[in-house]
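User: For my dataset I need records formatted as: sequence, then structure tokens, nothing else. Please produce one.
Assistant:
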Amino acid sequence: MKIPVGISARHVHLTKEDFYTLFRANELTKLKDINQPGLFACNEQVTLKGKKSLIENVRILGPFREYSQVEVSKTDSYVLGIDVQMRKSGLLDGVEKIEVIGPYGSIEVPIIMANRHIHISEEEANALGIKDNDKALIKIDTEKRGVIEVFYKVSKEAYKELHLDLDDANAFLLSQGDEVEIFEVKK
């Protein structure tokens, strides 16, 4: 089964309260929709302040979440000087925090490197007998071909897409929208 690739650059998810602290505003302003239903890139951007350096102009993704979280690649973590753990989004116990700076203040936010995952809708997952957190093997057929293991992320509505960070995409010479092949699902 072929599946498109979505490449996830560094970004921030915020609660409404944390957004207000940083921007003194109550609503995100949409820049553009992204592939996953209901998700969008915002006009608002922040600065990440690590132990070693800053990364500026980091995009916020909407809508608001029940938790705030920063997602970066391993390369970003080296630049920032922070030991980033690979996690599923929202599983933030025991991870480091980073200072997130907005125009009106700063907050400490958990920072992770998101695991490689496939977004899939509940309806399609049920039809294929796939459950949340099941694993799949993906065959990548580029000049730098390879096989990677990923997790399924089942949600009510989803656009079926493999999400990789910039490090993974660059390592395999993949671009947004390229297709890869799922060749084994592991329960």
